[in-house]
């Protein structure tokens, strides 16, 4: 059992937005296996404990967040969708709704699924050259699409809400997740890839952290352009693949 964000030893009441997505399903399963009381929120049903609704519907977001200890905000339209208008509405307005609801419901912690799309090339035009390598969390954003911009917005919104409302906000930046079973993973996955099991472990570590606000690159082993040294130092994150 994890120590909760108030310092007591008990199961946490956790809301996972985007619970019908691939990462959302994995995270819900892992947190439930850890003994927590988990309920999902998605536009698509995914199990009995899923609230079905849209992140742009603020009254419903507020209803779902009520009574939670922690919200894991994974809900977003992915980069490959190509619909910038829908992406802006869900990823920007929806993220604002989640943070607003978390503050009003006095939720203690939010874990925000950001993305290394903020730093990595999106294959659009000619991206700006990195100012230095490997890039860490202090490196300026290199966003090339609305998706990256929406994630950078979420990080800065989290900083503001943490400062204004005293919420613990931890932003995790995975990229190009590999969905293989653990027994099928035999070594480092290579540049730009990270195993879903390492991402899940990063969420577990963040859940148990007492950090008030932080942004963390979540990489696999043997990356050269991005470093996760800060996550290793402050969260205890050690990628296995």
Low-pLDDT residue intervals, each spanning 5 or more residues? none
If helices are DSSP runs of H or I spanning 4 or more residues, what is the number of helices? 6
- What is the CATH homologous superfamily assignment? NAD(P)-binding Rossmann-like Domain
Largest sheet: 7 strands, parallel
SSE string, helices as H and strands as E: EHEEHEHEHEEEHEH
**Structural domain tally:** 1
At CATH level 2, the architecture is: 3-Layer(aba) Sandwich
CATH third-tier fold name:
Rossmann fold
Proportion of residues in extended strands: 15-25%
State the separation between the terminal residues, measured CA to CA. 26 Å
Question: What is the structure about, briefly put?
Answer:
The chain has a single domain, classed as Rossmann fold.
Describe the structure.
There is one protein chain. This protein is of the alpha/beta class. It has one domain (13-234): NAD(P)-binding Rossmann-like Domain (Rossmann fold, 3-Layer(aba) Sandwich), CATH 3.40.50. It is built from 6 helices and 9 strands, in the order βαββαβαβαβββαβα. It has helices spanning 22-33, 58-65, 84-104, 146-165, 196-207, 229-234, and strands at 13-17, 37-42, 50-52, 70-73, 109-113, 168-173, 177-178, 194-195, 213-217. A 7-stranded parallel sheet has the order 3-2-1-4-5-6-9, with helices on both faces. The chain has a two-stranded parallel ribbon with strand order 7-8. Helix 3 (84-104) runs parallel beside helix 4 (146-165). The chain is globular and about 45 Å long. The two termini are 26 Å apart.
């Amino acid at each position: 059992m994890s120590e909760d964000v108030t310092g007591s030893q008990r199961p946490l009441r956790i809301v996972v937005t985007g619970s019908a997505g691939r990462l959302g399903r994995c995270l819900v399963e892992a947190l439930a296996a850890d003994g927590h009381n988990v309920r999902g929120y998605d536009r698509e049903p995914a199990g009995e404990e899923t609230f079905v609704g849209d992140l742009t519907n603020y009254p419903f977001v507020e209803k779902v967040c009520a009574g939670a200890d922690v919200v894991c905000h994974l809900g977003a339209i992915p980069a490959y969708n190509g619909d910038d208008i829908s992406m802006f509405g869900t990823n920007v307005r929806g993220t604002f709704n989640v943070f607003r609801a978390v503050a009003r419901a006095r939720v203690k912690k939010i874990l925000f699924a950001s993305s290394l799309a903020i730093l990595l090339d999106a294959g659009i035009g000619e991206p700006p050259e990195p100012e230095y390598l490997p890039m860490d969390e202090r490196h300026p954003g290199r966003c090339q699409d609305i998706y990256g911009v929406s994630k950078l917005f979420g990080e800065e919104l989290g900083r503001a809400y943490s400062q204004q409302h005293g919420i613990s906000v931890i932003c995790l930046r995975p990229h190009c997740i590999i969905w293989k079973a653990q027994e099928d993973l035999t070594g480092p996955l290579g540049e730009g890839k990270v195993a879903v099991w390492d991402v899940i472990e990063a969420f577990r570590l963040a859940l148990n952290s007492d950090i008030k606000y932080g942004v963390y690159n979540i990489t696999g082993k043997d990356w050269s352009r991005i470093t996760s040294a800060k996550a290793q130092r402050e969260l205890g994150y050690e990628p296995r693949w």
